[in-house]
């Protein structure tokens, strides 16, 4: 019993959390199955790696800030035909993140823009990429308050350290000249540092009205579309077509 407690104490010192919690079970299983010393060591190390990977994934998922989890398998390609299975398969390879490409999903509400953005971000998290999701409205709030709010500062630090930044719902709410300038500064900082996904109900030709300055709009689009895949998504709202009722 004394040796078992010593093993747990050493495991705690070395941050071998799986061994610390399960030392007695590991020893019991090793005796029962007559493991060799090498087999025991391999099992201990494998369990530690799996636990560390699980915790790292959980941290990435938490910091990503997804409002809900969306899976790409649930996206209805028969309803939304503006993107193909071949294109989705290519995006799921995540080569575009490694090459720092951006994605823009344009279209009216309900055509699947946010579903695609979240599901691609979720898959990126699973594959080990650091992802940040934020709506345009919340992004503006964080940009404007980061100097006085620890929460906003933390959010911006996570965004700036991400491999993929998802900006959802650009164009749904009006923005001021100050906010447009802050948005430009962020895009300039992220340019060639991280991939960006933007969803918007406004066509690119309408972004000048949104941002309020032709020169600034040109500069923003120049950086976003330098390496970019653009998806114009059309059709009816999936939510309206599949509306659920209590009766």
UniProtKB/TrEMBL annotation:
<dbReference type="InterPro" id="IPR001270">
    <property type="entry name" value="ClpA/B"/>
</dbReference>
<dbReference type="GO" id="GO:0005524">
    <property type="term" value="F:ATP binding"/>
</dbReference>
<dbReference type="InterPro" id="IPR002611">
    <property type="entry name" value="IstB_ATP-bd"/>
</dbReference>
<keyword id="KW-0547">Nucleotide-binding</keyword>
<feature type="domain" description="AAA+ ATPase">
    <location>
        <begin position="99"/>
        <end position="232"/>
    </location>
</feature>
<keyword id="KW-0067">ATP-binding</keyword>
<dbReference type="InterPro" id="IPR028350">
    <property type="entry name" value="DNAC/IstB-like"/>
</dbReference>
<dbReference type="GO" id="GO:0006260">
    <property type="term" value="P:DNA replication"/>
</dbReference>
<dbReference type="InterPro" id="IPR047661">
    <property type="entry name" value="IstB"/>
</dbReference>
<dbReference type="InterPro" id="IPR003593">
    <property type="entry name" value="AAA+_ATPase"/>
</dbReference>
<dbReference type="Pfam" id="PF01695">
    <property type="entry name" value="IstB_IS21"/>
</dbReference>
<protein>
    <submittedName>
        <fullName>DNA replication protein DnaC</fullName>
    </submittedName>
</protein>
<dbReference type="InterPro" id="IPR027417">
    <property type="entry name" value="P-loop_NTPase"/>
</dbReference>
<comment type="similarity">
    <text>Belongs to the IS21/IS1162 putative ATP-binding protein family.</text>
</comment>
């Amino acid at each position: 019993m004394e040796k078992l407690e010593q093993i747990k104490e050493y495991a705690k010192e070395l941050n071998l959390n799986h061994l610390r919690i399960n030392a007695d079970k590991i020893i019991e299983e090793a005796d029962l199955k007559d493991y060799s010393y090498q087999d025991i060591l391999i099992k201990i190390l494998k369990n530690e790696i799996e636990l560390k990977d699980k915790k790292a994934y959980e941290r990435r998922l938490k910091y990503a800030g997804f409002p809900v989890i969306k899976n790409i398998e649930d996206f209805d390609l028969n309803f939304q035909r503006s993107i193909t299975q071949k294109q989705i398969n290519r995006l799921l390879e995540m080569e575009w993140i490694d090459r720092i490409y951006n994605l823009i999903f344009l279209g009216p509400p309900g055509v699947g823009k946010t579903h695609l953005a979240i599901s691609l971000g979720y898959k990126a998290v699973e594959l080990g990429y650091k992802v940040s999701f934020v709506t345009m409205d919340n992004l503006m709030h964080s940009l404007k308050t980061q100097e006085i709010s620890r929460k906003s500062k933390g959010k911006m630090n996570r965004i700036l350290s991400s491999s993929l930044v998802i900006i959802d719902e650009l164009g749904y709410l009006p923005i001021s000249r100050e906010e447009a300038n802050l948005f430009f500064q962020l895009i300039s900082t992220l340019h060639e540092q991280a991939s960006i996904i933007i969803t918007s109900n406004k066509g690119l030709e309408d972004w000048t009205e949104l941002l309020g300055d032709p020169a600034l709009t040109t500069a923003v689009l120049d950086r976003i579309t330098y390496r970019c895949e653009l998806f114009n998504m059309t059709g009816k709202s999936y939510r309206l077509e599949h509306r659920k009722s209590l009766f």
